[in-house]
Specification:
alpha/beta; Rossmann fold; 45% helix
């Protein structure tokens, strides 16, 4: 494998930090070309001093002077604002771009990287959820390759290696069920943010962790899988798998199923994407199946997890509906984390936003972004 330098969009978040662990563990294969963050100047500067990228970018332009001062004399270029982040996305030194910016804010820089023909390791769901048709069309035009980093989509990508989509009967995404899998629906109204953030198996950022608790995370993954693999929605299923060892399955037309098993450690799919198509012998964690004793599966309870059905509904509606769904969900999660709404109001606000939205069938990027803002506004309006 040739040496690759990585541009990490969102290096101070959970995925970005774990990606840097992977890079540090494989110094003969991977290096850092660029790093970006929203506002965490201290951590971004520490990362830059340790990994010595050519460029760092801070989205919050008011913090650029502080960042520049911390890196004075290093020769590391400092960029600021959304344009600075987008500059990092197309850095000529980057052989691969890791998209790990949470939320729809990650859409523009990922699109820039795709248009530049980059190989994009995609960790954040929102670019494909909100603008899947646009991103995939741009990838076809530029020849960009999109490699999934989400553990579920990485699992499917690996299981499909050597097969054609026409041989696939179903994709089966697995979900841990989050912290409230066994809790009766009537008890969810009093759930606190602290309880919802206590994920039983995965270590993730707060927004993704709440999405896992509502199962919206899996709903967004259905939409993402549709675009990544070209499989219709009626052939994408979800199973609850509390052990988080089987990361997803592919069922083929002859009835055979291939499952991908591994420890619940995001460094595994990150490394697979950054080093694809090779597998460096660097085991982060292994699974002792005998110690586990059993792997269990169950169907999701849509009464307890209505977000899953809402996401599928938006995906099937198509056009700008997923963007409105995503915007409403981001806003609702933020309101919940701020203590302004209850846990069960999250799906209620999203449903209200979808009811108010009138989808545009073949949207432009501006129409996608407008739908995102409309979804957010509708969620705020119904929370008041």
């Amino acid at each position: 494998m040739e040496f690759r330098r990585v541009a990490i969009l969102g290096s101070t978040g959970s995925i970005g930090r774990q990606a840097l662990e992977v890079i540090e563990a494989l110094p003969d294969r991977l290096g850092v070309a660029a790093l970006t963050a929203e506002r965490n100047v201290e951590r971004l500067a520490e990362q830059a001093l340790r990994f010595r990228p050519d460029l760092v970018a801070i989205a919050d332009a008011d913090r650029a002077e502080d960042l520049a001062e911390r890196l004075r004399g290093t020769g590391i270029a400092v960029a600021a604002g959304r344009e600075g982040v987008r500059r990092a996305a197309v850095a000529p030194e980057a052989g691969i771009v890791l998209g790990a910016i949470s939320g729809v804010a990650g859409l523009a820089p990922v699109l820039d990287a795709v248009r530049a023909g980059k190989t994009v390791a995609l960790a954040n769901k929102e670019p494909l959820v909100a603008a899947g048709s646009i991103v995939m069309e741009e990838a076809r035009r530029s020849g960009a390759r999109i490699l999934p980093v989400d553990s579920e989509h990485s699992a499917i990508f690996q299981a499909l290696r050597g097969f054609e989509v026409r041989e696939v009967a179903r994709l089966v995404l697995t979900a841990s069920g989050g912290p409230f899998r066994g809790r009766p629906p009537g008890e969810l109204e009093t759930v606190t943010p602290e309880e919802a953030l206590a994920h039983p198996t995965w270590e993730m950022g707060p927004k993704v962790t709440i999405d896992s608790a509502t199962l919206m995370n899996k709903g967004l993954e259905i939409i993402e899988a549709h675009w990544l693999f070209g499989v219709p929605y009626d052939r994408i299923a979800v199973l609850i798998h509390p052990q988080s060892v089987v990361h997803s399955l592919v069922e083929f037309v002859d009835g055979t199923m291939l499952a991908h098993l591994g420890a619940p450690d995001m460094r595994l799919p990150i490394q697979y994407a950054l080093c694809y198509p090779e597998r460096p012998p660097r085991p982060w964690a292994t699974v002792d199946l005998a110690a586990l004793g059993a792997l269990t599966f169950e169907r999701p309870d849509l009464q307890r997890f209505p977000c899953l059905a809402l996401a599928r509904r938006a995906g099937e509606a198509g056009g700008t509906a997923p963007a409105a769904l995503n915007g409403a969900n981001e806003e609702a999660v933020a309101l919940f984390l701020a203590g302004r709404i209850g846990f069960t109001q999250i799906p209620a606000l999203i449903e209200a936003a979808l009811e108010a939205h009138r989808p545009v069938a073949q949207p432009t990027l501006d129409q996608v972004l407008t739908a995102d803002q409309e979804g957010r506004a509708a969620a705020r309006r119904h929370a008041a």
